Write the structure tokens for this entry.
Amino acid sequence: MMSDTFEPKIVAFVCNWCTYTGADLAGTSRMQYPANVRIIKLPCTGRISPLFIMKALEQGADGVLVSGCHPGDCHYTAGNYHARRKYTIFREMLHFLGVEPERLFFSWVSAAEGRKWADLVAEVTDTVRRLGPRRSAWGEPVEGIAAPRLSANPVPFEAPAGTFAAQAEAMREKAKALLAGGEVGTVIGYEQGTLPGTARPAFVSTPEEVDRLVWNEHCHQNLAVYAARKPAKPGKVALVVKPCDERSLVGLLQENRLAREDVVLIGMACHGVQSEGALAPRCAACQTRTPALADPVIGEATPPTATADPRLEQIARIEQMAPAERWNFWQGHFSRCLKCYACRAACSLCTCERCLAEKAQPRWIPAPPDGAGNLSWHAVRAWHLAGRCVDCGACSAACPADIPLYLLNLKLAQVVKDAFDYEAGRDPAAAPPLTTYREDDAQEFIR
Amino acid sequence: MAKALRTEALLDFLRAVQQDARRLVAPVEEDGLRLFRAVDRVEEITLAEGNTRWSFKEVLFPRSEALFHYRLSGGSVALQEPDQPEGETVVFGARPCDAAGLAVLDAVFAPNGRPDPDQAPEHEDPFYRRRRAQTTIIGLACLEPGPACFCTAVGLSPTGTAGSDLLLTPLPDQGVFLAEAVTEKGERLLAAHAHLFTDTDDTKEQATRAAEGRIQRTALSGVGGPLATLFEAPPWEELAARCLGCGACAFVCPTCHCFDIVDEGNAAGGSRCKFWDSCGFALFTAHTSGHNPRATQPARFRQRVLHKFRYLPERFGVQGCVGCGRCIATCPVNMDIQEVVAKVTG
Amino acid sequence: MANVYLPYLMTVAAVRDETPDVRTLRLEFQDESIREGFRFRAGQFGLYSVFGQGECVFCIASPDTRPGAIECSFSYRWGGKVTSALSRLTVGDTMGFRGPYGNWFPLDAMRGKNLVFIGGGIGMAPIRSIFETALDQRAEFGDILLLNGARSVSDLVYKAETEAWIARDDITCVKTVDPGGETPEWDGKVGLIPKVLEELAPSATNALALVCGPPIMIKFALESLAKLGFGKEQIYTTLENRMKCGSGQCGRGNIGGCYVCKDGPVFSAAELEQLPPEF
Ligand code: SF4
Ligand code: SF4
Ligand code: SF4
Ligand code: SF4
């Protein structure tokens, strides 16, 4: 039997002040506990980044334990409260990706709780030993299990006749007026693409060029991605935005990437947009069809076609899968990832000056587009967008490999909503969920 | 005399080919996209018209590969050559544009194969070279080029033979594929499966004319010439304002070949890996000091265009873009290289 | 077929601090036959690796007349992953080298000529290689002038060697630091390289100049040389780009249509003028 001989490797990240001292106490009191746990000491759980957990798994840990001071006892006041929020999301994410949740442990162990530490380590070791070795390496599929496929049911696209043309006309008029007024130097809108049934971003800087601008069901890109770029022409930038794009602006305002007066927003009341001939998945149940932040709002919105978001059903189906199936579902998709970073480039909220993917000292994300590198990339990107992603769909639309990135982002948005009652991109004055905490945040998963 | 393969016999042929080679790579459907994959059963292969999402270049130039492995212990280092397990490979369903694109990869990675004595044969990519020698390309001519296709605009044809060892052109009215052996490898393939092929008087002329007629995009004449003086002149700023700086265009392209090298591993050892990179990325040419010779996205997009349409022809005597249209269709913001080149040279 | 990516294993035989952030390593080939057989030409470059960290590119800083070992000098000021790792190596450690790559200084054309060598900061590394190569065959050349300049005294590389060169009477060696970079004990010149060069005023007749340093220094040094009557074919310099393969494949080495790794790194001022402004 495997379990007779299997000695799991378990990595414990512990804070210096409480748990480490507690572990020390267990040692000096000569309490017996298994030697499978390698302890890595950090100043505070606030410093125990979820990336550490990911790296430990990438490097082959069979289980990971994170432990720090009890709520209220943090040496740095609130490091553990912040950490608790992070682990809440990260843990759910790993679970959704197919990491067995039984391999991840979180606890509060004080300096006086030597006994608790010894018992905890014994329990953790025992649990992981019973689970057995990880069923595959980081980023490799579990052998012998086919990657399940999900098929989406495309919703046919319908927009009320004539709405687009009238809106387009009004939008162009507005754009001309802005450019003629002199304050706005560049209008970023849409023009016809070079392939049938496509539109693409267009930069225009004179009233004459405005005639190129179009507005129709193909205008799916989120132009907020250009909002924080320095325009080539002097003057402000005016952006043509849909309500979902506008949520990106809210995020940029919250994160001080932009001031509201830096940009003019030409808001388009929305009828939904197309992707690959059908209604874009995010549009079916989208409830916000009228821009809230924009300067002028052009046109009138049409109500959603569905009452429930069809993507939630896909998420539910993934959640019904066993961990190994779920893992293989994602590996199947991620194996196609080219690491072209179009998802990042198209995302208006991927604003880091230097992405973690490009940092080499240390290298959190293996650079090559292979199993480990791709899985880490997707985990990190989703994690960094958790509580920030506004569900604009730009990343999924940009992906040449058709990886359903939205499922991961949306799942984390759900987690954030459930745990912290927060929705990204709604309120410019709200504190983003990972910049704050509540003392009574839920913590059932922490022992 | 040309040979013909009955349409129904195609799978028999491929099955036989698969038995002889270690690997058969062909277009299959996966999660709604068409991709080249090593196939288990020839029935999985799709013959749908149009290009796969990205080319089959990864058969020869994998998106990631180990150049060597290293083990570290104490102060000592042991290096070990990687295995190359692929072995004899047949690619079926290479479209004429992709097959023609091999000329670029050959020129860059295996220059010694070219009969140009001026090109110092100093540096070859041994991995590419080995794989190339072990790979046979069965091309499949296009009857229905799509809206992004412009092979004819760069002097190629939807039924062209360049780069294929054996080219099959479907002649649906006759119920056959016309088979043309282009190289010795192709001849051998025909000879080995001679019982499946018959002599024929059919030609692909009409199919060629029809297919070429479907390509709407204008010819890019004088490429190389006008571009030679256009480093500063065209309004690259305007042309590339919307470019996002991702690598999608490069990674789907059959001829893009930029790569990066990093060491991946831990304290005990690891591998030095070579993997795809893109000139569109902001950090591609950035020095550690922060200096970046191509500091802006327009400068990087210019590199992409000029590399294909000027530097490669000038430097290696090959056409850098084969007009497959993939970058146009894949780019999240529809940067259209054919449109751009037509504009700046027109 | 040989795996061109497989580096030679090298032992660090000596480590020398040139400045607070520039270091020189002396590297010996571990394999005896390579140690005997390895040849390069002054001006060529190589890729140096620390296993587990990666590779980076610099010129070979030692003369091509002394086989058996090579030296490289590198700055780790910017804290790059590989340069930082190189700066942590100590004597006896194993690291990797592959090369040589690229073209070299026109030694044959230099024979019989008066030579002016100008190095600014870490740009002295390739200059040192060709300069010492020339010194090792001193009789083959006319007058030799070396100008070694840096921002400050502490940034001056090859200090000890520079003193030895100054002491020689068969060559002229001048050291200089930028105004403000001098110390009370400084016994060299104070002035920007182009200005000192104009003061020294070497004759352009039957002469070649080899210049290497930061781009801005090169620019002004070229202007000064022009004033002194040096034609564009009489001036050589080296360029540096980020590279991965060393051989024109990885897509980084080009400046416009020119591949620094294959056509360079050594260029004449006339060739330089033809390059688009992309470096
Ligand atoms: S992660 Fe994707 S859906 Fe979310 S904001 Fe970024 S581009 Fe939009
Ligand atoms: S866009 Fe798609 S293929 Fe490109 S890096 Fe993102 S997930 Fe991978
Ligand atoms: S051209 Fe398109 S695909 Fe290429 S880098 Fe720019 S945005 Fe990305
Ligand atoms: S540049 Fe674009 S059209 Fe040309 S070969 Fe590459 S992907 Fe195809």
